[in-house]
Amino acid sequence: MDVLIVLVGQCGCSLGAEFFTQLQQNDKLSLFKNTDGYVRCVAVDSERKVVNSLKRSIFREDNVVHGKTGRGGVFAHGYYDDGSELLERAMECIRKEAELNWRLSGFIVVHSVSGGTGSGLGARILSELREEYARHFVCSVAVTPFVHGESSLQDYNTVLCISELQKSCDMVMMFHNDAIAELVRSSSPSSFGLSTINSYISEALRGALLPAQVADHPSFGTNLWDITASVCPGPSWKLLDCIFTKTPRAQGLSGMLNTFPNAAKTPMDQVLSAMLTLRGFSDSETKLVPVARDRLVTAFSFVSWNTFPVDIRFDRSKSSRTGTFAKPMASRNKSSTSSMVATTTLLWNRMKHVKPVQEALNKAWDKFEIKAFWHWYAARGMEEAEFQEAADNVHRIVADYANLRKS
Questions:
Q1: Strand spans (E) along 113-150
Q2: Packing angle between helix 384-402 and helix 154-168, nearest 10 degrees?
Q3: H-helix or E-strand spanning residue 132
Q4: Cβ(41)–Cβ(4) under 8 Å?
Q5: Please, which residues have CB within 8 angstroms of residue 182's CB and are 6 or more apart in sequence?
Q6: 110 vs 103: CA distance, rounded Å
Q7: Which residue, 45, 59, 66, 147, is most buried by CB atoms nearer than 10 A?
Q8: Which tens digits make up the pLDDT trace of 135-176?
Q9: What pTM did the predictor assign?
Protein backbone atom coordinates (compact mmCIF):
# COMPACT_ATOMS: atom_id res chain seq x y z
CA MET A 1 0.00 0.00 0.00
CA ASP A 2 1.53 3.29 -1.10
CA VAL A 3 0.46 5.26 1.95
CA LEU A 4 2.46 6.96 4.66
CA ILE A 5 1.34 6.36 8.23
CA VAL A 6 1.83 9.10 10.83
CA LEU A 7 1.55 8.18 14.52
CA VAL A 8 0.84 11.12 16.83
CA GLY A 9 0.83 11.17 20.61
CA GLN A 10 0.82 8.36 23.14
CA CYS A 11 -2.33 6.76 21.77
CA GLY A 12 -1.19 6.93 18.15
CA CYS A 13 2.28 5.54 18.87
CA SER A 14 0.92 2.70 21.03
CA LEU A 15 -1.61 1.75 18.37
CA GLY A 16 0.99 1.98 15.64
CA ALA A 17 3.37 -0.30 17.53
CA GLU A 18 0.62 -2.93 17.87
CA PHE A 19 -0.47 -2.51 14.25
CA PHE A 20 3.02 -3.07 12.84
CA THR A 21 3.62 -5.98 15.21
CA GLN A 22 0.51 -7.70 13.89
CA LEU A 23 1.54 -7.01 10.30
CA GLN A 24 4.95 -8.51 10.99
CA GLN A 25 3.44 -11.61 12.60
CA ASN A 26 1.18 -12.12 9.59
CA ASP A 27 3.84 -11.48 6.91
CA LYS A 28 2.10 -8.31 5.72
CA LEU A 29 4.69 -5.76 6.84
CA SER A 30 6.16 -5.56 3.33
CA LEU A 31 3.02 -3.73 2.20
CA PHE A 32 4.16 -0.72 4.24
CA LYS A 33 7.93 -0.94 3.65
CA ASN A 34 10.21 1.16 1.50
CA THR A 35 13.00 -0.43 -0.53
CA ASP A 36 15.45 0.22 2.33
CA GLY A 37 13.50 -2.14 4.58
CA TYR A 38 12.01 0.49 6.90
CA VAL A 39 8.28 1.09 7.20
CA ARG A 40 6.71 4.18 5.62
CA CYS A 41 5.90 5.74 8.95
CA VAL A 42 6.67 8.84 11.00
CA ALA A 43 6.11 8.70 14.77
CA VAL A 44 5.64 11.96 16.69
CA ASP A 45 5.12 12.63 20.37
CA SER A 46 5.80 15.53 22.68
CA GLU A 47 7.67 13.23 25.09
CA ARG A 48 10.39 10.64 24.59
CA LYS A 49 9.05 7.70 26.63
CA VAL A 50 6.40 6.42 24.18
CA VAL A 51 8.35 6.72 20.94
CA ASN A 52 11.31 5.02 22.60
CA SER A 53 9.20 1.88 22.93
CA LEU A 54 8.81 1.54 19.14
CA LYS A 55 10.75 -1.20 17.39
CA ARG A 56 13.73 0.66 15.96
CA SER A 57 14.55 -2.30 13.72
CA ILE A 58 11.64 -1.38 11.42
CA PHE A 59 11.53 2.42 12.00
CA ARG A 60 14.04 4.73 10.42
CA GLU A 61 15.75 6.58 13.27
CA ASP A 62 15.18 10.00 11.71
CA ASN A 63 11.44 9.31 11.48
CA VAL A 64 10.97 9.12 15.24
CA VAL A 65 10.39 12.68 16.44
CA HIS A 66 9.85 13.76 20.04
CA GLY A 67 9.87 16.87 22.18
CA LYS A 68 11.00 17.45 25.74
CA THR A 69 7.72 18.16 27.54
CA GLY A 70 4.11 17.09 27.18
CA ARG A 71 1.19 19.21 26.04
CA GLY A 72 -0.75 19.05 29.31
CA GLY A 73 -3.83 17.54 27.70
CA VAL A 74 -4.67 20.90 26.07
CA PHE A 75 -5.61 21.02 22.38
CA ALA A 76 -4.35 24.59 21.99
CA HIS A 77 -0.91 23.66 23.35
CA GLY A 78 -0.51 20.91 20.75
CA TYR A 79 -2.11 22.81 17.86
CA TYR A 80 -0.09 26.02 18.21
CA ASP A 81 3.13 24.12 19.12
CA ASP A 82 4.36 27.03 21.27
CA GLY A 83 7.70 27.44 19.56
CA SER A 84 8.96 23.92 20.26
CA GLU A 85 9.46 23.29 16.52
CA LEU A 86 7.96 19.82 16.96
CA LEU A 87 5.47 20.45 14.15
CA GLU A 88 8.19 21.75 11.82
CA ARG A 89 10.42 18.74 12.48
CA ALA A 90 7.53 16.31 12.04
CA MET A 91 6.49 17.84 8.71
CA GLU A 92 10.08 17.78 7.45
CA CYS A 93 10.27 14.05 8.21
CA ILE A 94 6.96 13.51 6.42
CA ARG A 95 8.19 15.42 3.36
CA LYS A 96 11.40 13.39 3.17
CA GLU A 97 9.54 10.11 3.56
CA ALA A 98 6.99 11.13 0.93
CA GLU A 99 9.78 11.94 -1.53
CA LEU A 100 11.08 8.37 -1.23
CA ASN A 101 7.89 7.00 -2.78
CA TRP A 102 6.88 8.54 -6.10
CA ARG A 103 3.69 6.45 -6.11
CA LEU A 104 2.50 7.74 -2.73
CA SER A 105 -1.30 7.97 -2.75
CA GLY A 106 -2.00 9.42 0.66
CA PHE A 107 -1.61 9.56 4.42
CA ILE A 108 -3.13 7.83 7.43
CA VAL A 109 -2.76 9.72 10.73
CA VAL A 110 -3.37 7.70 13.91
CA HIS A 111 -4.17 9.71 17.02
CA SER A 112 -6.52 10.39 19.92
CA VAL A 113 -9.02 13.25 19.93
CA SER A 114 -8.73 13.83 23.67
CA GLY A 115 -5.04 14.37 24.53
CA GLY A 116 -3.09 17.55 23.95
CA THR A 117 -0.64 16.02 21.48
CA GLY A 118 -3.03 13.59 19.78
CA SER A 119 -5.87 16.08 19.34
CA GLY A 120 -3.97 19.34 18.93
CA LEU A 121 -0.79 18.37 17.11
CA GLY A 122 -2.62 15.57 15.29
CA ALA A 123 -5.19 18.02 13.93
CA ARG A 124 -2.47 20.49 12.96
CA ILE A 125 -0.50 17.84 11.05
CA LEU A 126 -3.67 16.82 9.19
CA SER A 127 -4.31 20.45 8.30
CA GLU A 128 -0.74 20.83 7.00
CA LEU A 129 -1.05 17.62 4.97
CA ARG A 130 -4.25 18.82 3.34
CA GLU A 131 -2.60 22.12 2.39
CA GLU A 132 0.67 20.65 1.08
CA TYR A 133 -0.70 17.47 -0.52
CA ALA A 134 -4.06 18.63 -1.81
CA ARG A 135 -4.43 15.78 -4.33
CA HIS A 136 -3.46 13.02 -1.93
CA PHE A 137 -5.76 10.93 0.21
CA VAL A 138 -5.88 12.03 3.87
CA CYS A 139 -7.38 9.69 6.46
CA SER A 140 -7.65 10.03 10.23
CA VAL A 141 -7.81 7.04 12.55
CA ALA A 142 -9.23 8.81 15.60
CA VAL A 143 -9.82 7.31 19.05
CA THR A 144 -12.39 9.00 21.28
CA PRO A 145 -12.01 8.95 25.09
CA PHE A 146 -14.01 7.05 27.67
CA VAL A 147 -17.10 9.09 28.48
CA HIS A 148 -16.53 8.93 32.22
CA GLY A 149 -13.13 9.99 32.65
CA GLU A 150 -9.82 10.62 31.04
CA SER A 151 -9.55 14.39 31.49
CA SER A 152 -11.65 17.40 32.43
CA LEU A 153 -10.60 18.91 29.11
CA GLN A 154 -11.44 15.96 26.87
CA ASP A 155 -14.78 17.36 25.68
CA TYR A 156 -13.20 20.65 24.59
CA ASN A 157 -10.41 18.75 22.84
CA THR A 158 -12.84 16.41 21.09
CA VAL A 159 -14.91 19.26 19.66
CA LEU A 160 -11.90 21.27 18.53
CA CYS A 161 -10.24 18.23 16.97
CA ILE A 162 -13.28 16.86 15.12
CA SER A 163 -13.95 20.30 13.68
CA GLU A 164 -10.46 20.22 12.14
CA LEU A 165 -10.86 16.62 10.94
CA GLN A 166 -14.00 17.55 9.05
CA LYS A 167 -12.08 20.21 7.16
CA SER A 168 -8.88 18.27 6.50
CA CYS A 169 -9.79 14.61 6.01
CA ASP A 170 -11.37 12.58 3.22
CA MET A 171 -12.30 9.83 5.69
CA VAL A 172 -12.31 9.49 9.49
CA MET A 173 -12.28 6.04 11.04
CA MET A 174 -13.51 6.77 14.53
CA PHE A 175 -13.09 4.24 17.34
CA HIS A 176 -15.03 4.88 20.56
CA ASN A 177 -13.23 3.48 23.61
CA ASP A 178 -16.48 2.76 25.44
CA ALA A 179 -17.98 0.78 22.56
CA ILE A 180 -14.79 -1.23 22.04
CA ALA A 181 -14.45 -1.91 25.76
CA GLU A 182 -17.96 -3.35 25.78
CA LEU A 183 -17.11 -5.65 22.87
CA VAL A 184 -13.82 -6.75 24.41
CA ARG A 185 -15.32 -7.43 27.84
CA SER A 186 -18.04 -9.58 26.35
CA SER A 187 -15.53 -11.64 24.35
CA SER A 188 -12.63 -11.97 26.78
CA PRO A 189 -13.51 -10.46 30.19
CA SER A 190 -10.48 -11.97 31.92
CA SER A 191 -7.98 -10.26 29.64
CA PHE A 192 -9.59 -6.83 29.33
CA GLY A 193 -7.26 -3.84 29.32
CA LEU A 194 -5.93 -1.02 27.15
CA SER A 195 -3.63 -3.47 25.39
CA THR A 196 -6.66 -5.54 24.40
CA ILE A 197 -8.41 -2.43 23.06
CA ASN A 198 -5.29 -1.57 21.04
CA SER A 199 -5.23 -5.12 19.68
CA TYR A 200 -8.87 -4.89 18.60
CA ILE A 201 -8.38 -1.55 16.85
CA SER A 202 -5.23 -2.80 15.12
CA GLU A 203 -6.98 -5.92 13.87
CA ALA A 204 -9.89 -3.80 12.66
CA LEU A 205 -7.48 -1.54 10.78
CA ARG A 206 -5.81 -4.53 9.15
CA GLY A 207 -9.18 -5.89 8.13
CA ALA A 208 -10.44 -2.60 6.71
CA LEU A 209 -7.33 -1.11 5.12
CA LEU A 210 -5.28 -3.95 3.66
CA PRO A 211 -5.88 -4.57 -0.05
CA ALA A 212 -8.83 -6.71 -1.13
CA GLN A 213 -11.07 -6.88 -4.18
CA VAL A 214 -14.72 -5.99 -4.47
CA ALA A 215 -16.40 -9.26 -5.41
CA ASP A 216 -18.41 -7.81 -8.33
CA HIS A 217 -15.68 -5.44 -9.56
CA PRO A 218 -12.18 -6.96 -9.18
CA SER A 219 -10.42 -3.72 -10.14
CA PHE A 220 -12.25 -1.75 -7.44
CA GLY A 221 -11.59 -1.73 -3.70
CA THR A 222 -7.83 -2.17 -3.74
CA ASN A 223 -6.92 1.33 -2.53
CA LEU A 224 -8.13 3.88 0.00
CA TRP A 225 -9.77 6.13 -2.60
CA ASP A 226 -12.04 3.20 -3.51
CA ILE A 227 -12.97 2.68 0.13
CA THR A 228 -13.81 6.36 0.54
CA ALA A 229 -15.94 6.36 -2.60
CA SER A 230 -17.85 3.38 -1.23
CA VAL A 231 -18.55 4.50 2.34
CA CYS A 232 -18.48 8.32 2.22
CA PRO A 233 -21.28 9.31 -0.17
CA GLY A 234 -21.01 13.01 0.63
CA PRO A 235 -18.58 15.56 2.12
CA SER A 236 -20.74 15.98 5.23
CA TRP A 237 -20.57 12.29 6.15
CA LYS A 238 -17.03 11.20 6.94
CA LEU A 239 -17.23 9.61 10.40
CA LEU A 240 -17.03 5.83 10.03
CA ASP A 241 -17.64 2.96 12.43
CA CYS A 242 -15.64 -0.26 12.17
CA ILE A 243 -16.62 -3.67 13.58
CA PHE A 244 -14.20 -6.59 13.50
CA THR A 245 -15.10 -10.22 14.14
CA LYS A 246 -13.42 -13.55 13.54
CA THR A 247 -14.38 -17.18 13.58
CA PRO A 248 -12.67 -20.56 13.07
CA ARG A 249 -12.12 -21.03 9.36
CA ALA A 250 -13.77 -24.44 9.57
CA GLN A 251 -17.14 -22.75 10.21
CA GLY A 252 -16.94 -21.00 6.86
CA LEU A 253 -18.72 -17.89 5.68
CA SER A 254 -22.14 -19.31 6.49
CA GLY A 255 -21.07 -19.75 10.10
CA MET A 256 -19.74 -16.20 10.19
CA LEU A 257 -23.02 -14.82 8.88
CA ASN A 258 -24.93 -16.61 11.63
CA THR A 259 -22.85 -14.86 14.29
CA PHE A 260 -22.62 -11.50 12.57
CA PRO A 261 -24.06 -8.53 14.54
CA ASN A 262 -27.69 -7.90 13.73
CA ALA A 263 -29.64 -4.68 14.11
CA ALA A 264 -33.26 -3.73 14.18
CA LYS A 265 -34.50 -1.58 11.34
CA THR A 266 -35.13 1.75 12.99
CA PRO A 267 -35.02 5.34 11.72
CA MET A 268 -33.01 6.17 14.86
CA ASP A 269 -29.97 4.50 13.27
CA GLN A 270 -30.02 5.24 9.56
CA VAL A 271 -27.08 3.76 7.63
CA LEU A 272 -25.68 5.53 4.58
CA SER A 273 -23.38 2.83 3.26
CA ALA A 274 -21.25 -0.14 4.26
CA MET A 275 -18.23 -2.09 3.07
CA LEU A 276 -17.78 -5.65 4.29
CA THR A 277 -14.31 -7.18 3.94
CA LEU A 278 -13.96 -10.96 4.13
CA ARG A 279 -10.54 -12.50 4.67
CA GLY A 280 -9.37 -16.07 5.03
CA PHE A 281 -12.37 -17.77 3.44
CA SER A 282 -11.98 -20.32 0.66
CA ASP A 283 -12.47 -19.37 -2.99
CA SER A 284 -15.51 -21.63 -3.19
CA GLU A 285 -17.30 -19.45 -0.66
CA THR A 286 -17.37 -16.45 -2.98
CA LYS A 287 -20.75 -17.79 -4.09
CA LEU A 288 -22.08 -16.74 -0.68
CA VAL A 289 -21.16 -13.08 -1.25
CA PRO A 290 -24.69 -12.22 -2.52
CA VAL A 291 -26.07 -13.87 0.63
CA ALA A 292 -23.81 -11.71 2.78
CA ARG A 293 -24.92 -8.60 0.91
CA ASP A 294 -28.61 -9.49 1.33
CA ARG A 295 -27.99 -10.14 5.02
CA LEU A 296 -26.62 -6.64 5.49
CA VAL A 297 -29.36 -4.97 3.46
CA THR A 298 -31.98 -6.83 5.49
CA ALA A 299 -30.36 -6.22 8.87
CA PHE A 300 -29.77 -2.49 8.65
CA SER A 301 -31.91 0.50 7.80
CA PHE A 302 -30.18 2.07 4.81
CA VAL A 303 -31.13 5.47 3.45
CA SER A 304 -33.54 5.18 0.56
CA TRP A 305 -31.52 7.28 -1.88
CA ASN A 306 -28.49 4.97 -1.88
CA THR A 307 -29.50 2.24 -4.32
CA PHE A 308 -26.19 0.35 -3.93
CA PRO A 309 -25.44 0.71 -0.20
CA VAL A 310 -23.21 -2.36 0.29
CA ASP A 311 -19.87 -3.30 -1.23
CA ILE A 312 -18.19 -6.58 -0.31
CA ARG A 313 -14.44 -7.11 -0.62
CA PHE A 314 -12.92 -10.57 -0.70
CA ASP A 315 -9.30 -11.34 0.17
CA ARG A 316 -8.14 -14.77 -0.96
CA SER A 317 -4.80 -14.68 0.85
CA LYS A 318 -4.09 -16.94 3.80
CA SER A 319 -6.04 -16.24 6.96
CA SER A 320 -4.49 -14.87 10.11
CA ARG A 321 -3.03 -17.04 12.85
CA THR A 322 -2.41 -14.22 15.28
CA GLY A 323 -4.16 -11.53 17.24
CA THR A 324 -5.10 -11.31 20.88
CA PHE A 325 -8.69 -10.17 20.54
CA ALA A 326 -11.54 -12.68 20.57
CA LYS A 327 -9.51 -15.79 19.91
CA PRO A 328 -11.81 -18.51 18.61
CA MET A 329 -12.44 -21.56 20.72
CA ALA A 330 -10.88 -23.76 18.06
CA SER A 331 -7.54 -22.05 18.59
CA ARG A 332 -7.14 -24.11 21.74
CA ASN A 333 -6.84 -27.15 19.50
CA LYS A 334 -3.25 -27.98 18.61
CA SER A 335 -4.23 -28.67 15.04
CA SER A 336 -2.95 -25.90 12.77
CA THR A 337 -5.98 -26.30 10.51
CA SER A 338 -8.48 -25.67 13.27
CA SER A 339 -6.46 -22.73 14.59
CA MET A 340 -6.79 -20.89 11.30
CA VAL A 341 -9.30 -18.05 11.51
CA ALA A 342 -11.29 -16.10 8.99
CA THR A 343 -12.18 -12.47 9.65
CA THR A 344 -15.00 -10.10 8.81
CA THR A 345 -14.59 -6.34 8.98
CA LEU A 346 -17.57 -4.03 8.58
CA LEU A 347 -16.73 -0.42 7.78
CA TRP A 348 -19.96 1.52 7.79
CA ASN A 349 -21.29 5.05 7.87
CA ARG A 350 -24.24 5.42 10.22
CA MET A 351 -26.11 7.99 12.23
CA LYS A 352 -25.78 6.33 15.65
CA HIS A 353 -21.98 6.45 15.51
CA VAL A 354 -22.12 10.24 15.91
CA LYS A 355 -23.92 10.09 19.28
CA PRO A 356 -20.69 10.28 21.39
CA VAL A 357 -19.66 13.33 19.34
CA GLN A 358 -22.94 15.05 20.15
CA GLU A 359 -22.54 14.19 23.84
CA ALA A 360 -19.04 15.67 23.86
CA LEU A 361 -20.35 18.81 22.13
CA ASN A 362 -23.12 19.25 24.72
CA LYS A 363 -20.73 18.81 27.65
CA ALA A 364 -18.12 21.13 26.15
CA TRP A 365 -20.67 23.84 25.49
CA ASP A 366 -22.04 23.61 29.03
CA LYS A 367 -18.51 24.18 30.33
CA PHE A 368 -17.81 26.94 27.85
CA GLU A 369 -20.91 28.91 28.83
CA ILE A 370 -19.54 29.33 32.35
CA LYS A 371 -15.91 29.36 31.10
CA ALA A 372 -15.03 26.29 33.17
CA PHE A 373 -11.44 25.21 32.43
CA TRP A 374 -11.27 27.68 29.54
CA HIS A 375 -8.27 29.46 31.07
CA TRP A 376 -6.05 26.56 29.93
CA TYR A 377 -6.89 27.39 26.31
CA ALA A 378 -6.79 31.17 26.72
CA ALA A 379 -3.30 30.84 28.22
CA ARG A 380 -2.16 29.23 24.96
CA GLY A 381 -3.56 32.02 22.81
CA MET A 382 -6.88 30.53 21.78
CA GLU A 383 -9.72 33.00 21.27
CA GLU A 384 -13.26 32.26 22.39
CA ALA A 385 -14.44 32.80 18.80
CA GLU A 386 -12.28 29.85 17.70
CA PHE A 387 -14.09 27.46 19.99
CA GLN A 388 -17.46 28.90 18.99
CA GLU A 389 -16.61 28.30 15.34
CA ALA A 390 -15.49 24.73 16.10
CA ALA A 391 -18.68 24.08 18.06
CA ASP A 392 -20.76 25.38 15.14
CA ASN A 393 -18.89 23.08 12.75
CA VAL A 394 -19.46 20.03 14.93
CA HIS A 395 -23.11 20.99 15.40
CA ARG A 396 -23.50 21.00 11.60
CA ILE A 397 -21.90 17.56 11.39
CA VAL A 398 -24.35 16.18 13.95
CA ALA A 399 -27.27 17.94 12.24
CA ASP A 400 -26.33 16.52 8.83
CA TYR A 401 -26.40 13.02 10.26
CA ALA A 402 -29.63 13.70 12.18
CA ASN A 403 -31.30 14.79 8.94
CA LEU A 404 -30.87 11.24 7.66
CA ARG A 405 -34.01 10.35 9.61
CA LYS A 406 -35.95 12.17 6.91
CA SER A 407 -34.34 10.12 4.14
A1: 137-144
A2: 70
A3: helix 122-132
A4: yes
A5: none
A6: 21
A7: 45
A8: 999 999 999 999 887 789 999 999 999 999 999 999 999 999
A9: 0.91
